[in-house]
Design brief:
There is one protein chain. The protein is α/β, with parallel strands linked by helices. The protein contains 3 helices and 39 strands. Among the domains are: about 5-90, Udp-n-acetylmuramoylalanyl-d-glutamate--2,6- Diaminopimelate Ligase, Chain: A, domain 1 (3-Layer(aba) Sandwich), CATH 3.40.1390.10; about 155-305, 3 Solenoid (UDP N-Acetylglucosamine Acyltransferase, domain 1). It is flat, with a radius of gyration of 28 Å. An 11-stranded mixed sheet has the order 10-13-16-19-24-27-30-33-36-38-39, with helices on one face. It has a 10-stranded parallel sheet with strand order 8-11-14-17-20-25-28-31-34-37, with no helix packed on it.
Length: about 350
């Protein structure tokens, strides 16, 4: 889709420096862009490429100076880039038809322009609101409700009684509503605790590939509005995750933990069960959290500690071999001094 720089500037609210009639039809990285491409600089370390890029225009910050280049200046270039991507590469329109090779249960309610691809199973008493799309290989259990404009990619399983909000995106292989990991010890064996709750996914949540979100033992496991979950994340039963959180790949959250709003859990973070993470907390990659964290904290390490303290500890860790060598030398010197003192004491 070809657009002028004037049209793009209006779309993203940019200050345009250059020729408004120049057209672009593609987006490319700043080091590979060619004429007709639009590129962006969100990280200052790439600013050096602006002078040499072949791109027809660059999205950049207001303080950028590049004579002879067409610049679209905005406060948040990365956000502007995302908006333009949506504009230049609009999502394909679905058929709005239910394929006869899908298996549809009894008493299923479908809104307008619902698309169901071949080899989908939909159980009894489900509700699919307007413009829902379900791709091949999905299994939707009984009494599931899926909100308008939600997109369920191939091979997703949504088990019985789960609720999916509006404009939710669930990527391939995700499992929503699997049994929570609950067992009571019976001597040397384990007795399975029935998991009779559900999962509730609120509006505008995105769930990555092969994510597993367990149903609650009782009540609900709840992912609140706007949260984004990366691939390969495990969320256990009765977990509550607040609004606008970012949960990065391979995070594991144990049962009954509560995560506040706007929390970021970086890759491979692990949270034990029955703890509370406050609003606006950031936990660095591979952080292991074993207790409550108050709002606004930046934590790292395992067990997780304040990030600045963890940086100091990490620097100390690198010095441990030298410190160990010096400690041994000091021990040897002290032992030699003690031996010398004992000899002198015996002479007296």
């Amino acid at each position: 889709m070809e657009k002028t720089l004037h049209e793009i500037a209006v779309l993203i609210g940019a200050q345009l420096e250059g020729d408004p009639a120049v057209t672009v039809s593609n987006i490319a990285g700043i080091d590979k862009a060619q004429p007709g491409d639009l590129t962006f600089v969100a990280n200052p370390k790439y600013s050096r490429f602006i002078a040499t890029t072949q791109a027809s225009a660059v999205i950049c910050t207001p303080d950028t100076v590049a004579p002879g280049k067409n610049l679209l200046k905005v406060d948040n270039p990365y956000l502007a880039f995302a908006k333009i991507m949506t504009f230049l590469y609009p999502q394909r329109r679905e058929t709005g038809m239910v394929d006869p090779r899908a298996i549809i249960g009894n008493n299923v309610s479908m809104g307008n322009k619902v698309t169901v691809y071949p080899l989908v199973y939909i159980g009894d008493d489900c509700v699919l609101e307007d413009e829902v799309t379900i791709y091949p290989g999905c299994c939707i259990g009984d009494r599931v409700r899926i909100g308008a404009q939600s997109l369920i990619y191939p091979n997703v399983t949504i088990r019985e009684d789960c609720v999916i909000g509006k404009r939710v995106i669930i990527h391939p292989g995700a499992v929503i509503g699997s049994d929570g990991f609950g067992f009571a010890k019976d001597g040397s064996r384990y007795f399975k605790i029935p998991q009779v709750g559900r999962v509730q996914i609120d509006d505008d949540v995105e769930i990555g590939a092969n994510v597993t979100i367990d149903r609650a033992a009782m009540g609900k496991t709840w992912i609140q509005r706007g949260t984004k979950i990366d691939n390969l994340v495990q969320i256990a039963h009765n977990v509550v995750i607040g609004e606008d959180c970012v949960i990065v790949a391979q995070v594991g959250i144990s049962g009954s933990t509560r995560v506040g709003n706007r929390v970021t859990l970086a890759g491979q973070v692990g949270l034990v069960g029955h703890i509370t993470i406050g609003d606006d907390v950031i936990i660095g990659a591979q952080g292991g959290v074993t207790s409550d964290i108050p709002a606004g904290m930046l934590m790292s390490g395992s067990p997780a500690i304040p990030h600045r303290l963890w940086l100091k500890a990490s620097q100390t860790f690198q010095k441990l071999p030298d410190m160990r060598k010096k400690l041994r030398e000091l021990e040897e010197k002290v032992a030699a001094l003690e031996q010398q003192l004992r000899k002198e004491h015996r002479k007296e």
